[in-house]
Each structure stands twice: as C-alpha cells, then as structure tokens.
Amino acid sequence: MVADHSDADIIAASLEDAAAFGELFERHHQSIFKYVARRADPAAAGDIAADVFTTAFSLRHRYDLAYDNARPWLYGIARNLLRDVRRGRGRASAAYVRLAVDAETTYRSPEAETEARLGVEALERALKKLHRRDAEALLMYAVEGMEYAEIAEVLEIKLGTVKSSINRARKKIGELVATDRPTTEWGSDERGDPT
Amino acid sequence: MTYEAHPVDTLLRAAVVDPSPSYADVLKARQALDAAIAAESASPVLAPARPSWGPWWRRIATAGAAMAILVTVVAVTTLLAPEPVTALGELATIAEQRDAVIAGEGESAYSRSSEVSTVFIDGADIGLPERGPIAFQLPRERERWQAPDGTLYVRLEVGQPEFFDAEAAAAFAASGLARDFGIGEVDERQVTGETSLLDQRNWPTDAGDLLVAMRSWVSNEGNAVSETAAIVELAADLLRETGADPELRSAVLRALDELGLETAVDEGNGRTSVGIQYVDTEVVRLELQFDADANLVAERRIWVFDVPDLGVSAGTVIDQAEYSPVRTVRSIGAG
Fold first, then answer.
1. Nearest Cβ partner of B200 from A42, A158, A186?
2. Tens digits of per-residue pLDDT, B265-319?
3. Could you report the per-residue pLDDT of A130-159, keeping only the tens digit for each?
4. With B283 labelled, which of A16, B33, B48, B241 sits at a CA distance of 20 to 30 A?
C-alpha cells in the first residue's frame, strides 16, 4: 500500500484483503498509544491500544468510506474503551490526562523543582474542575494536535461547539491556575486559534 | 499559517506525559491484530462485529451483559399485567399534547426566572484569611426574550447577597468586592449562536434513543460523579426555558421516568417532583418540579448534611430557581 492512499482506501482494501488493515496500524498505532497512555494506567495502555485496532478491524465494514481520515474514528474507539475500563473500575470521574514535571529537563534548583511540581499540580486541579468535554476538546487540540473537525467527529459535537469548548477551557484553566498560583500571568484571548 | 500558541496550550503540552510504546507494546499489539486478521482470513465471511475475548474488563462487561439479558428475560416473563402509569408518564402524555411555543414575526418567546445560588469566595479576598472559603447566597432575576431567528436577549438583575454569618457579611461589604459580582446591577445583553443544548445536537424524540443519547452526552461532561444525576441535570437543561418541541419534552420526561427516580406529587399545588441524591464534594439532593402542564417550573439543590467549615447546616438549599413557562410576547422588553 503506497503512502498517499487515504485511510479510507486502506479500509476499503481490507474488506477484500484483510491483511491490508495492517497499514492502518502502522500509521496510527503510535499516536493512539500516546493518547491512551496519557489517560490510562500505564500498565494497561499497551493492551488498550492493541484492542483499539482489533476492535477497529472487526468494525471496519461499518466505517463510512466517505471519510478519508480514520483518525477520529480510531480516537472514538479508544475513548469508548477507556470509558469501559474506568466504569469497570468504578471510577466515574477519573483524571483526564496524566501530567508530570519533565524529568529530562536540565538541572533545576530544588526551589525551581518545587515550583514546577506545584505548577503541574495546579494544572491537574484546574483540569479536574472543567467540564469533561471542554477538557477533552482542549487536550485533543493542544496535546494530540487534532484539527477542530476531527475533534467534532470524535466528541460528536458541532464544529462551533468545539471552538467554544476549547476557548472556555483555556479561559477557565487560566483563571484557575492564576488563582492557584497568583504570580502566574495568563491571557484569556483566543491566541492559538488560526481561524 | 503561523500563529503563536495559546499559553495554556503550551503549558499543557509541557506538562503532559509523553509516553512512547515500547518495542514489546508494538509487537504485542501487532500480533493481536495479525491474529484477528488471520482468524478472519480462515473464515472469510465478514460477520457483524463481535467482541474479542480479550482483556479482563471486557470479559466482565460481557458477563454483565449476559446477566442483564437474563434479568430482562425474567422480568419480561413475570410482567403479566400492564405497568401502571406513573406520574412522570402522565406528564409526558400531557407534554406531548401541548402546542409548541412558536414566536411569530415580530414576537419573542419569553420566560422569567428567579434564582438563588450559593457562591464561594476565599476569605482572604475580604480580609478574613483565617476563615478559608466563605459561602454566601446571591439572588438573581432573569428575563429572556428569544426572537424567531434564535437571537436571545437577556436581562439579568443581581440582588443583595445573604451570608451565613454577620462577620463575613460585614467584611464583604467593606471589601468592595460587591462590584465584581455585579451586585445591585442590571446586565442586558444579546446572545447569538448556540443559546441552549437544543442548538448543539439533534436530540431523538424516542425516549429510549434519547436516553442512550443522554448517557453518551453526560459521559463527555465533567463533574458527573453520578451518571444518573448528570442525566437529570441534562434533562433540566433541555427543558428549562428552552421552548423545546412537545415531542422532545415528552421524550425527556419518559427518559426521566425510566431512571426510576423518587417521584412525589404535591396535591396542594399540583406539582410533581423528582429527586435524586448523590455525592459530590458534599452530599447533594437535586430536585426538579413540574407543574400540571408538564412545564419545568422549579429546581433546587440541597446539602443533605452539615458543612461546619462553611457554617452551612443540613438541609440548606444551596441553589434554587423558579421558572415561568415559556410564552410568546409581542416584543422584546414585554413581559
């Protein structure tokens, strides 16, 4: 399968030749793994990411081939599997994403290390106070690098709602983190929006 | 196009963990997929999707589904008599039979609400740092006019706060913080675009489908420590001053009925109440009230137990609102 074939082409080909589906795995496994591993128990992330692709394979005959890009579909499957895992563990309000102070950064003084850790903790608290959809939309945009249209598809909401969710989440995080850490200055404008 | 990343985006990117799959992760995942491909190739009929007998949590889910089917079969076989009509079921029928509120040319759909919300501030903001969080209740009166093109005009008047103790009230008055809350002020604004959840999605009008859509929706919403409570709140969002179609109003009521909530009818005022208790940061009881015409006319949240830190006693209503049914008026500003 040549690289300029769309995801839809790959899925269509796999309906005749199941082995063709492997190309979709090669294209998207890494990003799906990262998405899952940021949200799940690290020990379970590999299994869940693997299950995204076996589930996608078994459901591929239901894929709408009008959509060239299968990434939203795969993220949607990943979200559903993550939700099942959380429900199975009785964790209705699990953290949206795992945060950490970057351990590979060059040496920090103990004071700077503490400051960085407090910053991450403030951000974690802020994320947990957001509406889940707003937090998810912002994380998909800022961290996963997804387009608005992709996010709309994954979250099953309108494009305008994606934009308003992201802006609302940014504003809220800015306010919450600033309140948590009064020395931080935040803008609440819409910078970062290329439209 | 180049643009400067929003500082919050930059912060998030810096703070999230950036895990890469190990060689073993990739190999294991690829082997699982190859096994699925091989299994299908051995039996090439593309059957409808079936879950693989995979991780433990899926086995539990499958076992749960099997148990649900068993329970359903038992329930169905024991249901020899028709179910009695519930209070919510009756309201759903009434809602279905009512005319839609449709504003004609030059008219507006109008509603008025009175609400009292509990607000929390940091004691340090009013010179009482030793107090930590301080709660007070803030009344608001709101009028809404929605034009046929969807444009919404809102007039909001913020009343005077009520504190749970005199010290906090005096400190707040002296702090000048009242201006930040718009206390004593009137705010009038025009809103275009999405003005309610009705604008965000085409909600099904079949109660079963609607309940599925509501469950899907609340799974994306935050702070939902109880799925059922989140669905009740979503139902209120769909019914509250939105002028939803009779079919949707009826479906929402039937969906609520399927949740098996505590329901009570007050013979005195003819209102039907549904309630649910759940644990958030405190134990909360959420209640919705419908009038005899199936309009959502009131909702309230109550803290079930004492919250000594805030000086709030058990049974305190922390949020409440009363709504007038939506009706058409001749112009914006008329009430």
1. A158
2. 888 888 999 988 877 667 888 999 999 999 999 999 998 888 877 778 888 898 8
3. 888 888 899 999 988 899 989 988 888 888
4. B241
CB A138 within 8 A of CB A166: yes
Mutate to test the interface with A, among B3, B4, B11 (most CBs of A within 10 A): B11
Please report the DSSP string for B34-72 in residue order: HHHHHHHHHS---PSP---S-SHHHHHHHHHHHHHHHHH
Q: Count how many residues are written for chain B.
A: 335
Nearest to A152 by CA among A134, A170, A137, A171: A137
Strands B271-279 and B262-266: antiparallel
Any bridge partners for residue B16, and if so which? Answer: A99
User: Does the distance separating the beta carbons of A50 and B32 come in below 8 Å?
Assistant: yes
Strand partners, B162: B137
Contact criterion met (CB below 8 Å) for B297 and B290: yes
What count of other Cβ atoms lies within 10 Å of the Cβ of residue B148?
Answer: 14
B40 close contact with A: CB closer than 8 A = yes
Instruction: List the structure tokens of B1.
Output: 């196009």
Whether B42 contacts chain A with CB within 8 A: no
Q: How does DSSP classify residue B303?
A: E
ipTM, two decimals, is 0.77
Q: Is the dihedral of CA B101, B248, B213, A95 positive or negative?
A: positive
Dihedral sign, Cα of residue A22, residue A27, residue A29, residue A35: negative
H helices present in B79-154, as ranges: 87-97
What is the CA A118 to chain-centroid distance, rounded?
Answer: 23
Q: Render A132-186 in DSSP notation, one character per residue.
A: HHHHHHHHHHHTS---HHHHHHHHT--HHHHHHHHHHHHHHHHHHHHHHSTT---
Contact: A193, B34; criterion CB under 8 Å: no
Residue pair B172/B136 in contact (Cβ under 8 Å)? The answer is yes
Residue type, B14: A
Residue type, A100: A
Residue type, A160: G
How many whole angstroms separate alpha carbon B93 and alpha carbon B253?
Answer: 9
Q: Measure Cα distances from B131 to B155, B178, B242 in Å.
A: 34, 19, 40
B215's tokens: 């469950």
Q: Alpha-carbon dihedral of residues B22, B28, B30, B34, nearest 10 degrees?
A: 170
CB B277 within 8 A of CB B284: yes
Q: Do B29 and A131 touch (CB under 8 A)?
A: no
| A25: closest chain B residue by CA | B30
Q: What pLDDT is attached to residue B281?
A: 63
Nearest CA in chain B to A83: B219
A73's tokens: 């579909």
* CB of B8 closer than 8 Å to CB of A174: yes
CA separation for the pair B144, B191 (Å, rounded):
10
Residue B176 near chain A (CB below 8 Å)? no
DSSP assigned state of B82: P
| Separation of alpha carbons A149 and A162, rounded Å | 8
B281 touches chain A (CB under 8 A): no
